[in-house]
């Protein structure tokens, strides 16, 4: 139980006294433990105890008053303050970039004034003068409309007790209050004067039987040590275990990760709450999946960027999000292939309506979205909420799948803590626009913290304030450093610093912070039988010492670990680097990929297997302008059509510069007119037209320097047999020289190295494969046609010099594999290499063995093969050696 049976709180509850607690957690825990206390007393029936958090007690007393005042909720208070501040800014002609943040600070300053009994003050600057105006306007508006906010509710209750309009209990127990504000202190005096005896009851003090003080290297090590300690305590079934993290809001993500990982390593899952431990601080409701989906949809404008489109297509929280995943994936792939960066809602509807096998649920969603965006009326908030609920229901939110317990809690929080408060804004705002509705829905969703109901209370990770009045079986206090105990100073900008210091407002006075820190540490050191206090010696890359109030403790260095806890489980390594071999039936049909399959097999077998056998590639990423792939494709098509018109070297020479420019311009226009472009791409077509014309003309100047030739084929599809493989190929161009020999060309817009053709490993096999298997007659040369502005050139190898301008024979080429002396030997090397590579494909070789680092530089599979992790492990092994 929370307190031992001899603690006086139980006798007070048995006597029916009203207990006022500092927070809801203490009230809930006390009520639950009172049932256990009554069971120990062998009682079968008992009255529900009168236990109330202090704020709920004020609301309960207000309900007993016959008052015409309307008690405002927090969202309504913010709405009134927001309007007051915006009207004042409009009158003064001043603009603020962050009105919501200003409203939060102003509401906080108003709360401080009420809690610390500040009626007026002499302002020190324009901000404080403005706050005084705002506060006066706010109070005047509340009096005029007969509104009452919860900040001023205690004063009203106090006045009602003082006037005799409210009869209170004969006695009250106040529990868990470390430090009473002046307002609460005055209210206690008023209650005493009215005949209600007030007793401030101290929490139970537990003398620890086990106490440790630990200094960790950094915050991560400190949290890991706390998580392991908590796991061990739970495995030993010591009872309720608490880990107190003073800066839980800042460290929440890291705490969740470390504790989840550490608890999952337990060998006693029945004793350790791996996924259900209780963390007192939740995450913004807006971060929950279904709510994030609704907010994203509501905030969409008429024009959607690609990230928004992709999110809607993948989102499972709308109708069809799960059942239509294949159609939606294909639709997204098409959008990526078309390089779509942005689409209007109407254009998206057009694409969906004309898409074969379009996802019907997505089509319905976009139709409803278009209708919703057409709403411009200004109506009551409650009507807008009803309209919003109808819209979400029509699009199938929150999805087709049945909700689990967490999902139901998120949905309930959305309805109760977001939509209901928005609907109640009608009390302070008669009408609102659709934009204002969405703004309020988003604002509340971001401000409300969602925490699913804890299914297991054996482990509680809590902040400092949540520990008030509580005791545990084991407690670890993290962050006991000099920056937390005592805390730093933090002043509200709307109140004078001198006033905050004089009133001893929170975080305004070092002496008050020091006293409060000593009080907290004293209470926490007597809150559990097993106690550990820790701090991080380095915090956010800065050295840190322990709290000066804990310097007398026997600090021990945290034991370092390698972070591995195998729990006796042996790991088995499996070398799985060979895929199933290709069957004879598969070899009868051409394999997809053409010579690209051989190229990637030579570069990295795993890459070839995933791309061509499994058929998996990274999706295209839309980017501004034309992609390099699109620009290369346009160049290929223009050159194809130009050479279909020219036909030969003589045909090229027949055109003078003017005629050649006209021919190129005609072909460029024809290619561009026959290509589908995204909207943002069309804006660049004039520039692309100029680029293509000048680049093709520059390349043809290089072609003019060649010896006479005829173009035998341009982009003609061929089926080639390479070893055991049958491949579909499309050589860019095959020319015939005047003496009847063939030259195989392949256009490239990037930088090319001849060594990829003649080196130890054939990294560019397409040209040799065309030369070996796709050409009738002798081959005099193979070459890349490097078509780049200012760097247009042939780069290849030939049987003898000057078959092509700048192309050398085997004997004179650099980087030729050792042992190859002439063209015939190079041909044999190509044949052998191509057959071996083809056989490796057939055998299923899929090892992660890139031929060099350049292969991995732009590879899309590093997350799948995890070669970076492999390199790290190898380096780690070398370091150990």
From TrEMBL:
Residues 600-866 form the PD-(D/E)XK endonuclease-like domain. It holds the Pfam family PDDEXK_1. Coiled coil: none annotated. This is PD-(D/E)XK endonuclease-like domain-containing protein. It comes from Desulfuromonas acetoxidans (strain DSM 684 / 11070).
């Amino acid at each position: 139980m929370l307190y031992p049976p001899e603690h006086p709180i139980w006798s007070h509850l048995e006597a029916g006294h009203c207990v006022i607690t500092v927070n809801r957690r203490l009230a809930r825990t006390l009520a639950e433990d009172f049932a256990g206390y009554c069971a120990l007393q062998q009682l079968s029936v008992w009255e529900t105890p009168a236990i109330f958090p202090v704020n709920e007690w004020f609301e309960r007393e207000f309900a007993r008053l016959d008052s015409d005042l309307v008690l405002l909720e927090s969202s309504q208070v913010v709405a009134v303050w927001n309007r007051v501040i915006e009207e004042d800014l409009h009158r003064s002609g001043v603009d603020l970039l962050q009105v919501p943040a200003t409203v939060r600070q102003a509401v906080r300053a108003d709360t401080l004034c009420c809690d610390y009994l500040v009626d007026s003050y002499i302002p020190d600057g324009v901000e404080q003068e403005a706050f005084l105006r705002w506060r006066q306007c706010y109070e005047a508006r509340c009096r005029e409309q007969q509104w009452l906010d919860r900040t001023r509710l205690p004063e009203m209750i106090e006045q009602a007790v003082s006037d005799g309009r409210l009869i209170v209990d004969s006695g009250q127990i106040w529990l868990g209050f470390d430090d009473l504000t002046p307002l609460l202190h005055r209210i206690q005096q008023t209650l005493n004067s009215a005949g209600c005896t007030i007793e401030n009851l101290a929490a139970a003090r537990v003398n620890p039987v086990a106490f440790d003080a630990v200094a960790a290297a950094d915050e991560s090590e400190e949290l890991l040590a706390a998580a392991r300690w908590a796991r061990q305590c739970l495995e030993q079934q010591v009872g309720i275990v608490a880990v107190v993290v003073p800066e839980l809001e800042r460290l929440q993500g890291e705490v969740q990760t470390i504790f989840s990982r550490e608890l999952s390593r337990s060998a006693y899952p029945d004793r350790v709450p791996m996924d259900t431990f209780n963390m007192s601080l939740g995450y913004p409701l807006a971060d929950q999946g279904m709510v994030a989906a609704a907010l994203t949809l509501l905030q969409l404008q008429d024009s959607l960027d690609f990230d928004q489109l992709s999110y809607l297509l993948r989102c499972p929280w709308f109708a069809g999000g799960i059942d239509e995943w294949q159609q939606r994936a294909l639709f997204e792939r098409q959008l990526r292939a078309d390089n779509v960066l942005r689409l209007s809602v109407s254009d998206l509807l057009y694409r969906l309506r004309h898409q074969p096998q379009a996802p019907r649920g997505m089509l319905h969603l976009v139709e409803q979205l278009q209708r919703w965006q057409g709403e411009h009326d200004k109506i009551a908030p409650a009507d807008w909420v009803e309209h919003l609920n109808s819209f979400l229901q029509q699009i199938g939110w929150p999805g087709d799948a049945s909700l689990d317990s967490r999902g139901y809690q998120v949905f309930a929080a959305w309805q109760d803590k977001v939509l209901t408060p928005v609907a109640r804004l009608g009390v302070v705002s008669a009408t609102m626009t659709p934009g204002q509705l969405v703004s309020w829905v988003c604002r509340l969703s971001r401000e409300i913290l969602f925490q699913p109901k804890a299914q297991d209370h054996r482990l509680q990770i809590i902040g400092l304030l949540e520990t008030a009045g509580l005791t545990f079986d084991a407690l670890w206090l993290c962050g006991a450093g000099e920056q937390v105990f005592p805390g730093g100073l933090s002043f509200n900008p709307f109140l004078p610093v001198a006033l905050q210091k004089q009133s001893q407002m929170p975080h305004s006075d070092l002496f008050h912070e020091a006293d409060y820190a000593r009080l907290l540490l004293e209470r926490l050191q007597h809150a559990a039988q097993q106690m550990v206090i820790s701090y991080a010696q380095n915090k956010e890359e800065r050295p840190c010492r322990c709290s000066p109030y804990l310097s007398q403790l026997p600090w021990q260095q945290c034991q370092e670990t390698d972070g591995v806890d195998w729990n006796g489980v042996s790991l088995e390594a499996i070398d799985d680097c060979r895929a199933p071999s290709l069957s004879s039936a598969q070899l009868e049909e051409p394999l997809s990929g053409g010579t690209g399959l051989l190229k990637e097999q030579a570069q990295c077998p795993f890459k070839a297997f995933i791309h061509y056998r499994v058929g998996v590639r990274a999706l295209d990423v839309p980017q501004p302008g034309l992609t390099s792939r699109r620009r290369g494709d346009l160049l290929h098509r223009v050159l194809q059509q130009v050479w279909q018109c020219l036909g030969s070297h003589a045909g090229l020479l027949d055109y003078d510069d003017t005629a050649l420019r006209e021919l190129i311009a005609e072909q460029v226009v024809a290619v561009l007119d026959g290509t589908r472009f995204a909207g943002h791409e069309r804006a660049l077509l004039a520039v692309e037209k100029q680029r293509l014309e000048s680049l093709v003309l520059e390349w043809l100047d290089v072609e003019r320097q060649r010896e006479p030739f005829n173009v035998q084929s341009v982009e003609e599809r061929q089926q080639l047999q390479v070893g055991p493989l049958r491949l579909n190929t499309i050589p860019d161009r095959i020319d015939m020289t005047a003496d009847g020999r063939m030259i195989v060309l392949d256009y490239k817009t990037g930088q090319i190295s001849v060594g990829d053709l003649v080196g130890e490993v054939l990294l560019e096999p397409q040209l040799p494969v065309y030369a070996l298997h796709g050409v009738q007659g002798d081959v005099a040369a193979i070459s890349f046609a490097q078509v780049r502005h200012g760097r247009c050139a042939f780069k290849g190898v030939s049987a003898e010099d000057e078959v092509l301008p700048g192309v050398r024979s085997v004997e004179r080429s650099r980087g030729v594999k050792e042992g190859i002396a002439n063209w015939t030997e190079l041909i044999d090397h190509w044949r052998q290499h191509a057959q071996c590579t083809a056989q490796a494909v057939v055998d299923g070789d899929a090892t992660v063995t890139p031929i060099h680092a350049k292969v991995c530089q732009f590879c899309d599979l590093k997350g799948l093969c995890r070669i970076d992790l492999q390199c790290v492990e190898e380096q780690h092994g070398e370091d150990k050696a």
